Amino acid sequence: MADANDPDHQEKDIGRARRTKQDREGRFAALQKLKDLKGTKNKVTITEVDNVYEEVDEREYSKRVQRRQEDDWIIDDDGSGYIEDGREVFDDDLGDDNAVQAKSVGRGHKKKDLLKCVPGRKNNIKNMLIGMPSKNKEKDAKSKDDDILGDIMQELNSTPSSAPPRQTVSTLKRKALTPGSTINRTPTSIPRAGNTLGASRLLKAEPKRLPFAGGASNIDDIIDDCTLIEESNSQCQDYSCKMDNQMEIDEFDSQPEIKNYDSQSTDATIDKFNIPCEENVEQQELKRISSISEFDLTSGWETIKNNVDVNQSVAFLDLGSNELPLIEGDDGEQYLRMYWFDAYEDPYVQSGTVYLFGKTYIESAKTYVSCCVSVKNIEKHIYVLPRETVIDPRTGQDTGVPVNFMDVYEEFNTRVADRYKIAQFKSRRVLKKYGFEPASIPRESEYLEVKYSAEHNLPTNLKGATFSHIFGANTSALENFLLDKRIKGPCWLNVKNPQKANPPVSWCKVEAAVPHIDQIELDVKRDAPPPLAVLSLSLRTVVNSRSQQVEIVAISCLVQNEFHIDRAAPQPAFQQHFCILSRPTEEPWPLDHRDSLTGATVTKIERTESERALLNCFLAKINKIDPDVIVGHDVASYDLDILLHRLAQNKADKWSRLGRLRRTNIPQSKGVSRSHLAMSGRLVCDVKISAKELIRARSYDLESLCQQVLNLTGLRPDLSSDAVKKMYSSSASLIGMVAITMQDAANTLRLMYELNVLPLALQITSIAGNLLSRTLLGGRSERNEYLLLHAFHEKGYIVPDRQAFKKSTKAEDSEPEDGAIEKTSRSKKGRRKPAYAGGLVLDPKRGFYDKYVLLMDFNSLYPSIIQEFNICFTTVDRQITKASQGEEEVLPDLPDSALPPGILPTEIRKLVDSRREVKKLINDKLSKDLLLQYDIRQKALKLTANSMYGCLGFSNSRFYAKPLAALITSKGREILLQTRDLVRKMNLDVIYGDTDSLMIDSNSVDYDQVMKIGIKIKQEVNKLYKHLELDIDGVFQRLLLLKKKKYAAVTVTQVVRDNKKEMITQQEIKGLDIVRRDWSQLAIQAGKYALEQILGDLSADERIARIQQKLEDIRDGFRNGTIDLSLLQITKQLTKNPENYPDAKNLSHVQVAIRTNSRGGKKLVQGDTVSFIICQDGSNMVATQRAYSMEEMKMPANAHLKPDIQYYLAQQVHPVVARLCDLLEGIDAVRIAEFLGIDPSGYRSAQNNSNEHDTGSPPVTDEERFQSCEKFYFQCSEKTCGFEMSMDNVFRKTDDGYVEFALSRCGNSNCKKIPFTAEKQLVNRLTLAIRKHIQLYYAGWMICEDQSCATRTRRIALKSVRAHPVCIGCGTSNMVVEYNDFDLYTQLCYYQHMFDASKAINQLKPNERDQVKLAHNNSMDKTYKALLNNINQTLLESAYSQVNLAGLFYSFNRPKSEASSTY
């Protein structure tokens, strides 16, 4: 400790004035007195003092602070000056981050000098407190009730008068920067971010006060929010967390401030920015990976946000503590009118309570605010089915004693109620219907209805001596509430006589509670929904290399406070926007970040010093904005899950403000279910989930959706974790990262508008009667369940129990499914096929049709069948399901036509009729908003009606009924066959049929004539049915029909414009490779081009010539290196999590996903798509094990990776084009391989395999038969020559056109040796060639029949389909022998054909025959015969050479003695 008398110490004190806080009222004396009394029982009493602090108003305080900050009162010692911002000493914070930072500063080479400037450092109370372990907040509770003690403890948290100024303020010096200076970017060289958010400054402007408010919406809570942020060293440096009455958003009049930005160049990259660092490998990598163009950095976002006028703010409501915005009804009762859109219940913590979330109107403020109503004491309803006779509970035998209702009541009262501790319950005798599984339950019977508290849980399989079943034991309180009150979707509710919620249970502005369900009533006015507040969310994360934890470094938000769900998308798209920014733990701020971020016009950037500060600031923003809808891309399964994880890790205060229900513990589940629980009261709109249901796309990542839906061109900058970290090297790149994040949030919001996600979800929810939040998360089965639940409940039916029903179906379905599977084969992947037959698919008549083809289609076939035959739970007898053991299931009989319509047909008819009426209302005279709503309504009705059949065949549905589903599909097959036969009777050819459609070859080129044929077919079919309707779905001008569910066509439609008929054509593709995502874009482009030529009005030769030119261009593009890497990406979807694949080694996309997940960051999970490129990496592994993502290829360590050209030509482009050209004449797989410059021999072998058993084709010539065989190669016997020759026939033509023997002279013109003279050498050479082919056959190599799979193995898989082993590589196609017995026999026959001179001479023309006879001599004839005898001897050993009739009929002619000995 430094001595006060030390002259050096005194000299230092003189040279610098120290700021001290005067002890005006003896507070330190009181503290000393408290210490002296420590351990005694005396109580300290301190006289009350007044005016401890000087009180000034806000304006005077701001003036003093400004004056102090502008006063340069520190004397410069070296011309550079100390860093001092003039803050109050009590503004300093002692958070963990500051302590760590102070520690890091002390590690520098100036550590000793710094310590000299801080005399008495060890006795500093602050340093003592920093070293103390952290304590729980509970220990501070004692000081909250004692004002004096609280003041003393506050004094302890401030700087004592004897302590010197803080090290980070008084000792760090600011160096003068020159343009050419180089700065060492180390953590010790960066000034510590000071605290600029004082508690007193939170009340900068008086908030707008309104006369009504709820639980936590007053200004005190807002102050508390920001105080919590301050306590955790999380000050927003730019006063961003001030909770005043207006959101601080900059006006958007100028472009963001980026230094050295070249506005004239479109290729401006980050490396053009003036980054004051030395150029090293890391900086070069930054330039390569994070190379972002002007558009990518800011222009895209600037274009969007410059059109937005930000004039609106969020008003705070300071509501009375005991008042609710009640309205007096006509009957004199007080009620709260609210529009509800979400509900939540916690059956484990508060069973029987449902929380309704919505909005209510504040008349005095002329605005809508959030509202929460707690509906308590919702009872459980169970229905007890009495037995006919009493069952002995011990033995289970029937006693024969009849059961009456008093017996059931007594057993429930004495045994069930006592056992499950049900103290009170109500019961009555009711008549109910039941029409579900099990079929043994009577259709209509009397039940004992019992109502009791939801706190008690009864098992669903409970049985007794007097009752056999109970229903409704596990029905949730929310389901009972929706069904009893007949609430179908968001609507206006009247809450009668509500009470103020105490204590508050939510973060809503208005809170109320009702003790009984009867106090909730539907509002009959049906007013328009109120506007919703929408917040679009986008996160930017990095991975901490040490902890491997994901850290959130930026949260970008866009706010739209006036989103009307029943109108068109609002303009502008958003009203407010901001970005909360922090830094990664491992990265410092850029040196000029203060001025750059403050002056940036990209958005309002609110800088925080830690992730915990960022999260607390975000929660405060959420509480202030109070959004009703959170929009994001993959927000439900990733963004919110990351937010919850980081909130838990950082122990953020009041994390539940993320939703609207106050909670203590964060849900522990994962994925979508966790987000749904945490976000109760706020709707989560995930555009990724919605897009999967509404559109079909190659990939559902944000970039692909923007390109397909928003028609945005250009690549979206994909910032990896490392790229984000490196963007902290300069303020310019950091602002660019913020702009990209803001643009992602804007594009996500635009996607929601463009797809009409919320309006469509609202209409579907209103039809089905489920929760809107569940509709937004997908799941059609749940919607259909609720639609049927409402329908059956209104008709007095008991609905099936969820868990009990699922258990029973598993037990009952096991035998029928196994029996059905025994008669059917398994799929290629070994999965079981459906337990009942589905739709009928007719065998197609493959070919290319250039005359008009009619496409006839049944409108909504399965819903129409349900209506046509009155198929329902209530009409079909499902008790008999099997004829006998081991046989197929027997379908139930159709219901009697005299029965009244069932509930299922009635509901479908309502949907169909409603859609028809809505479509009638659509016309051009309607307003834009009304026209949009009608269109959305009819789409919702169509989606719901078409999915009604699905719940019958979905085994996890509560309304699963396999007999009904099988009956419906059976009638569909029957109707399709009847329609086909009817068309055939009209002398028309049906070339293809699939489930509900037929393709009919009209054999005509007259469009009007074709339409007449279609109308005639339609009339003949429709008169047979009441509800089924066949219609003309389209006319194909040209059709390429390849196989089942795979075709391409040009559809033609005739329209009348200006009294003239015009033909409009459009291409339609179904099931082809070019519409699948698991092919590269290069292959898809080549396939689309080939298809355009095939379907175009071209001649055969011109069509082939264009395809050839395209393929040669692709080949040359690979050779020249002009093919874009993005075209080589192959996209495949994960059907399960990567770690759950048993054969991950052989699956490219799984290997890439595993490596991607190992690097940290966003995990690839089930349902995600993975893009990769097959590369040459120097290894000998198969292609499936050489897959790399685009990000991996850009890594410096993988600079040697190059695309595998052979793979893309042979297994990507070739298969796609070859399958399209399979039916064309003049082009085949061999020619396509030649166009691409790859070896065509393998494709010749494949053609031979396919034609091996083709007996219907015309006979082929010897040239066609042996075209894929290997020639005979031999060398000249002359030692000085050794020329290698090939022989493919007995003769060959000379240059002058004459015919000569192939062995008559050497191929070397300078050699005089005659080859046929070396007879023994030729025979030996032929013997070796024959043995080589025989060895190749017995090697047993097998290859995959799919040409796109390169698997080649001698190992036979255990799994087989149709007697062929399944490929161990792709797992989908069959393995075939690479060189089979047919190939060997054909090769030997080729050799025989090659050396049969006599046969060859006889086949020559007369003039040619005379020429060769002159050259034919005995010596030559002897050589040819020796070679022919050699090959004939080999053929005699083959089983192909002879047919032994005695062997074939040996079993019929065996001696009796031999036959009897075998038995």
UniProtKB/TrEMBL annotation:
SMART domains the UniProt entry points to: POLBc
Domain DNA polymerase alpha catalytic subunit N-terminal: 31-91
UniProt keyword terms in alphabetical order: DNA replication, DNA-binding, DNA-directed DNA polymerase, Metal-binding, Nucleotidyltransferase, Nucleus, Transferase, Zinc, Zinc-finger
UniProt EC number: 2.7.7.7
GO cellular component: alpha DNA polymerase:primase complex
Zinc finger DNA-directed DNA polymerase family B alpha domain span: 1260-1449
Catalytic EC class: transferase
Record-annotated DNA-directed DNA polymerase family B multifunctional domain positions: 772-1222
Family as reported in the entry's similarity comment: Belongs to the DNA polymerase type-B family.
Name of the protein in question: DNA polymerase
Taxonomic source organism: Daphnia magna
